[in-house]
Amino acid sequence: MMRIYSTVFLIVISICLTSCLDERPRAFFAEDGIIVGDVKKIGKEDVFVPISFKTAIVHSAQIFHDVKWSEENGVIYITAIYNEPPFSKKIDYSGGIILKKPKLQTYDLKYRNPNPDHASHDIGKINIPRGNKSDQK
């Protein structure tokens, strides 16, 4: 009988641990709380898009964890993921996303809510820097 209790206890703890990461809707952030910096080339073909977040109010028990993103038909969708107690642990966020071999010169950037409807909110446009003048011959 004791084994059943310990097994149930382990299952409950496992479920609690997996629910600590939480995707946040756009309303969680301040009006200008999603900040996109200047896009930078890294290597020959990839670009780094710096993205930072400011919440609408201070949430002391929640720690920024990462950005989930995807690119679909010239639109980059992002969603912020926060880590919540009881096992909040700060990680080293890279500060943005790396777009591998971008095919377009301009992308739309949108915040995608994690709700089932996946409503999206415009953030702005991202212009991909061109290569060196010697690369454009």
Order of helices and strands: HEEEEEEEEE
> Given the C-alpha coordinates, what overall shape results?
elongated
Count of individual beta strands: 9
Strand content: over 45%
Helix content: 10-25%
The span between the termini is: 77 Å
Catalogue the unreliable spans.
Answer: 133-137
Q: In DSSP terms, counting alpha (H) and pi (I) runs of 4 or more, how many helices?
A: 1
Total domain units: 1
Structural class: mainly beta
Largest sheet: 5 strands, mixed
Mean pLDDT: 77
Report the C-alpha radius of gyration, rounded. Answer: 19 Å
Keywords:
single chain; 137 residues; mainly beta; five-stranded mixed β-sheet; four-stranded antiparallel β-sheet; 1 helix; elongated; disordered C terminus
Q: How would you describe what is shown here?
A:
This protein has one helix and nine strands, in the order αβββββββββ. It is mainly beta. The protein has one domain. Strands 1, 5, 6, 8 and 9 form a five-stranded mixed β-sheet that branches. Strands 2, 3, 4 and 7 form a four-stranded antiparallel β-sheet that branches. β3 and β4 form a beta hairpin.
Summarize the topology:
Elements: H1 2-18, E1 21-23, E2 29-36, E3 40-42, E4 46-55, E5 63-72, E6 75-83, E7 96-99, E8 106-112, E9 120-127
Parallel strand pairs: 6-8
Antiparallel strand pairs: 1-6, 2-4, 3-4, 4-7, 5-6, 8-9
